[in-house]
Every structure is written in structure tokens, then in C-alpha cells.
Amino acid sequence: MKKYDAIIVGTGAAGGIVACMLAEAGKSVLLLERGRALSFSDVGRDHLRNQRLAVYGHNAGPELMGNPRVFVNPQGQPRLVKPHELDYHNNAACVGGGTRVYGAQAWRFHPHDFRMASKYGIPEGSSLADWPITYETLEPFYERAEWELGVAGDGRTIQHEIPRERNYPLPPVPPSPHTVALQHGARHLGWGTTSVPLLINTEAYGGRASCIGCKYCVGFACPTDAKTGTQNTVIPRALATGNSELKTSAVAETIETDDRGNVIGVSYFVNSSGTPQRETARSKRVIVSACAIESARLLLNSRSSFHPAGLGNEHDQVGRNLQGHLYPRAYGLSPARVFNGIGPGVTIATIQFNHDNPGIIGGGMLADDFIKPPIDFWYDSLPPDLPRWGMENKKFMRDNYTRVMHVRGPVQDIPNPEGRVTIDDTVRDKWGIPVARLSGTTHPATVQAAEFMRERGEQWLQASGCERVWSTQPGLILSGRQHQAGTCRMGSDARTSVTDEWGRVHNHDNLFVVDGSLHVTNGGFNPVLTIMALAFRSAEYIARLI
Amino acid sequence: MNSDTLPAVVDCLIPPDDFPGAYDAGVCDYIEQLLKTDLAEHDEFFRAGIDAIDNEALAKYNAPFAVLTREQQIATLESIESGAVHTSWPISSARFFVMLVNVTAEGYYSDPQQGGNRGCASWVMTGFEDVLES
User: Fold this and answer.
1) Which residues of A touch B133 (CB under 8 A)?
2) Domain range enclosing B11
3) Do A390 and B110 touch (CB under 8 A)?
């Protein structure tokens, strides 16, 4: 049996980077991906079946049949959920993972985000904690992610809050008509505004073309490959070394251990011949990068007499603190048309409410939104008192689709240890592997912050000249979805964390988790650039070990 | 199911003005397609709902829904939406009405490949696409 230097499970934001760094350091790598490599036409332009609006299905995996999860609602009732349902908390399952179909906002976390417990104290019922590393430790790796993959933005507008050594390699997206209105409103309120950093080529970069301003970023693939993911950057680099092997439609079942409990490889199912086959590969190191829910599931499913509760789970920590972001949303009706049909649509943000809000723990970033297809707008953005049908509804769509301004943003999740991933042994996927069971909610302090941010959103739109504003805020629910994080948090104490600061699982020398699962807290920002920065840092460390 | 009922119903939900109504935009084709695919499990439920709308019209106006005046049609749908039904429904009228309104909007506003939104009419109407692009 061939023995690899490393097996990496998952090709998303983290797995792709770790594969590239190890392969370029001359290590032999097996990269397992449960989904397929999806072309632009595979992802398609279906307005009802995509990762942003998934009424009947979605477009980037996993398949609707044979991949259930169990969701337990806040009243404690479990039910089976399919991948396109909101309560599944899906992230795309394909080469590139979520980065294949994301909106690509590329924020760094705020320095305070790494020391939430020290700054705010620990509210009752929360597992709020500091990260084992500081912003300053991660700063060079943020810069590396920005330059190696290519981020567009204007660092000068951000560095008063989030200091940085070097600007972004690409200029920010140009303003839209609504940008001007929001800039004016913020100035009136005395608020600072920033450009929105994006993993999108605003000029040709890295051998790929520039954005053509189409209206399909979130939920779709990019027609010119200007949107940057691991599938069009680090994974091709990894494969070009000749040191790495990518297996798609390869579903990890368990991490294998020897008769002394040491990690020796991974067993997975492939379907290359039409019938499912179980294969096992051996390696010196195993790196789990399957996203917060699936990474926890794989560790918990890797049970043996040495590890009866799963790997890394001696202290019942794996799968806890599942968190994403609550998203308050505000809408305002502008007196003039503000839509110019040029994507991405997100252009301006304020980061001055991420911290130091009176009576609030944390806070969040607020920004305008990606262009919404009309059916998404109809489902998401109409005023609550508008009739859902009839001439009045049609007239609103006709007159106001181009006049509604959108402001929304991720609120820092205050982690709740009861918001968690466990295994349901009574429900199996089509491979026979026990599925993830999701239960609990975020902490009530998150909802307080979300309510505060909802009000800030309305305030911004009012000051920007909107005739009427309306808004929503999701309340006390489990957060996760595309921003899922926290289930294998880093820390120095094995009783309250799963890995050390490098992502190495406590009490193992060769098992790593590298993805959003490591986030002790998830910032009030889209998390992907932090996942990437941590991946560069861990990969550099792992390469030195092998 | 009376084949005139669904076209009349969707045109109340999204009526014609100088942009097409739901029927002319192909919404019925969209719904028929959906009932054979993603909503196949709900086909009977949906058709029972359309029949029940006709029964409401017969009970209230002694005529099928499609031949009522536009005002009578709207009044019939409004009472169904508010739960003030005059006949006994074999299914939940509230659940059916939400599904009816949603699939009609989906057929009208989503991409034409789904069978509705003929000629990208709603995208031109909203300004999502300008005339040249569509």
C-alpha cells in the first residue's frame, strides 16, 4: 500500500491551501474531495436551485438524496433534513468547497476578535474564549493569502481599525449609484466607511481574467473565472507539482488508527466503477479540512477501543460551539433608481460597530449587498406590510426593484457550547456512515447584538435619503450555514479545546484539523480569509514536521 | 381540474398591465412542469386546492372561478387567504395558498429556462436586465 506524507480531507478554502503548500514543499499528498470538480455550466444559472436561494435544490453539492442530516429545533424535536434546506446548514461539496460559489468577501478579523473573553468577560451560558494567537501573529498570513490568491480592496480605508503592513494587490470594485447615497448617509451620521475586500479580480491577476460585472456572484460560478477560489488557484498549483493526487467523489468514512491508537490513514468510499468501493490510504499525517460540521462528524465517527467517543473527543469538546453568523437585514426605498445592473453589487461597508457598542458584546460589519435576482428579491426583500400578490405587489416589483437599497452584515456569534454537532447512529447516509445531528442555538447575547445592528442598518438607510425603511433579524436560532465554524476550537487546555494553535489535535502528534472549525470565535466578518490565513500558517508548520 | 381555473387564478395573483400577466408569461407551464418534478409529491394536493377554489366560486357566486368578474375573483382569493372559506376543504387552505402564491411568483420572476418568465418579461419589467441584454 502506498504511503503518503499527508492525506487531506476536503478541498475548500483550507484544504486546497494546505495541499498546495505541502506539495510545493516536496511532500506527497492525497487530497480527498467528497464532491466533483464542477464546470461553469455544471453550476449553471438556475435562480431557484443555487447556494443562495435553494427552493427546490442547489447547484454545488451534496446531492439531495442520500446525504441527510438530523436537525433538532429549539423545542427539541428532531427531523431529517435534505442538503438544500436551511436547517441542513450546508456548505458546497465540490472541488473548491464553498469558494466555488461564494460571494468572496475577504475580510480580516479585527484584533479584538481574537481576545473576546478578555475584552468583554464571559457571559453566563457562553463558552466565549480568547484565541491562543493574536491578530499580530496572523497578520503576515492574512497578507500572504491576500497576495497569493488576489484580493481587491483599499486597505487605507480599513487600517484605522485593522492595522496592516501592506495594501491589497488589486484596486477595489468601482462604486454604484447606491454607493454614493450610502457614503453620503454615513458622512451625515459621522460614520466611517470602507471598501469591501473581495477575492475577485478587478484586474487580471494570477493568470486569470478580470471581473466583467455580471450579476451572479453569490450562489453561482464566475463566467470569467475572475472570482478566486481554491479550485482555480492553489489546487492547480498543487497538482502541477506532480506530488499530489486529487480524488473526487471520495467520501471519508473514518480516520484509521493502529492498535496503539495512533493515526495511520483514512478510509473512504469511491464510486469510480459504478459500485461503491471502500479504500484505505496510509499517511504520516492526516489533515481534516471538511468544514465545521463535516470535520466534527469525521472525528466523531472515528471511534475505536482507544478512542470510544471519537478522535480528539476525550473531553466531549468535538462538535461544540457550532457558530456562523446571524444576519440582520435592512432595506430602504430610495427616491431615485440606484441599481445599475453591474455586479458584484457589494461596494461599501462600515466596520465601526464591530466593537465598543454600549451594552453589547461584539457587534458586526454592515455592507451593501450582492445583486439579488428578482425571485430572490421577491422572497427576501419586500416590505412586510406589502400584499404578497395582486397588482400592488407587481407594481412594487416593477417600480422599486431598482430603487431598494440593501444593508446587511454578519454579527459576531457569542458561542454557546450547546449549539453543537453530534452523531446520529440511527440515521446513515447512502454510504452507511452515521450522519451529523445539529442541535442548540446561539447565545442570547448574539441576538442582542443582531438587534443593535438591525437598528444601525435602518439608521444608515434613513440617513441615506430612503423614503421608508424596513428590516428583519433572525432571533435565537442555531447559526452555521456557509460561515460555519468553531466545532474543533484551538486552545492550550485539552479540557476546553480540541487542538493546539497549529490545529494539531490534543494528544496526537500527526492529526490536524485545519478549517473554520478552529475558530475560537468567528468575528463580525465573513470568515473565509481567516480560514485561509490559518491554513497558510498551519501548512507551513506541518511541512516542517514531515 | 377545470383547465380554465389555474390561468384565471395566476392572472389575479400577477395581473396583466403593460407588462404581461402571469398566464401570458408562462406561469402555468412552469407550474405544470414543477408538479411533474420537484413538487410531484404535492401534485394531488395542489390540484385539490385549485378544485377547491372553483368550489368556493360555485358556493358564493354559483359560477366557476374563471367566468367571475375580476373583482369577484379577487374577493374569492382574499377570503381564502384570510381563512374565511365557504366550503369544506380536503386540504389546508392556508398551506395551499402560500404554495400557490410562491410558485406563481417563481414562474414569473425566475429564469426562463424553468418554463415561465417568457421573453424575460419580468426581468425587463423590474430592470434586472435591460431590453438589449434579454
Assistant:
1) 341
2) 5-126
3) no
